[in-house]
Amino acid sequence: MASTRLCDESPHPSGATKRQRLARWLRGHGIEIGALHRPLEVPASARVTYVDRLPESVLRSHYPELSNETFAPVEVLGSAEDLSAFEPDSLDFVIANHLLEHLEDPIRALKEFHRVLRQDGVLYLALPDPRITFDRDRELTELDHLLDEHRQGPAMNRKAHYLDWAQNVDKDPQAEVRARQLDEMDYSIHFHVWRPDTFLEFLQAAKRAAGLEFELAAFAPPESAEDNEFILILLKGFSRELRLPQNGQQPSASGRPSRWRAVRARVKQSPAGPVLRPIYRFVKSRLRRSP
């Protein structure tokens, strides 16, 4: 099963900002699967172990276009569908960026993520929006197709997936020949295509089909014409209490985060931040001058 990512999903400034904002959910010890040359930047409170299905030397031969890039160190061999190197309920977070679309059976991967995460553990998912990527000419994956592949196994559709890729992404005039080559290489194509709305529909169906307890805690769609991904934060289990990310604030003199600092941080991260910043500086300077 393929579990690495394709390599032409380049970072964009808006996407990077969004990634950093949502990475505040991460703390403790977790894993990132298939990071390749673009591991997620995580807070200092998070410790990441990098997992891939192939050692780095083989990954580099698989992706020669990344020969000049620095890879995240592959510390554990495994795949999204098989995380048997990790005990149940042992991880605080799992990062899977531009990964699920590469899996023939993404429900199986969601089950593995659920198994290894502790209660309240964080699943950080980023997926490409086909309207802003090379998937733009492909049909969206139907929900019944995904459920059937999970129930019956994905092998029945593998050749069709590679042919679709050869025709609509590679645009190869000899699409059937190209599809066979990719299949023989076990090349990590996008087997599935989702928009944000259709992925959320899939997620709800996957939770019902596999009995998964994941709560959607945060969602960020593409935020600019160059931002090619949408991101979800899922928390394992359900809670009557609102679960929030760490905010990185220093404690106040009373030992609790300052409410003013928390409000100011939220404003700075909002679209109003750049507009209000000069006003804040002006007022602050006037207060300093006052007797």
What can be said about this structure in brief?
The protein has 291 residues and is an alpha/beta fold. The chain is built from nine helices and seven strands.
Furnish the topology, listing elements before pairings.
Layout: H1 13-22, E1 28-33, E2 46-52, H2 56-62, E3 76-77, E4 91-97, H3 106-116, E5 117-128, H4 143-152, H5 158-168, H6 175-185, H7 196-210, E6 214-220, E7 229-236, H8 259-269, H9 273-289
Parallel strand pairs: 1-2, 1-4, 2-3, 4-5
Antiparallel strand pairs: 5-7, 6-7
Would you kindly provide a written description of the structure presented here, covering whatever features stand out?
This protein has 291 residues and is an alpha/beta fold. It has 2 domains: 13-236, Rossmann fold (3-Layer(aba) Sandwich), CATH 3.40.50; 259-289, no CATH class. The protein has 9 helices and 7 strands. The chain has helices at residues 13-22, 56-62, 106-116, 143-152, 158-168, 175-185, 196-210, 259-269, 273-289, and strands spanning 28-33, 46-52, 76-77, 91-97, 117-128, 214-220, 229-236. Strands 3-2-1-4-5-7-6 form a 7-stranded mixed β-sheet. A hairpin with an 8-residue loop joins strand 6 (214-220) and strand 7 (229-236). Helix 5 (158-168) packs across helix 6. The longest helix has 17 residues, at 273-289. The chain is globular and about 55 Å long.
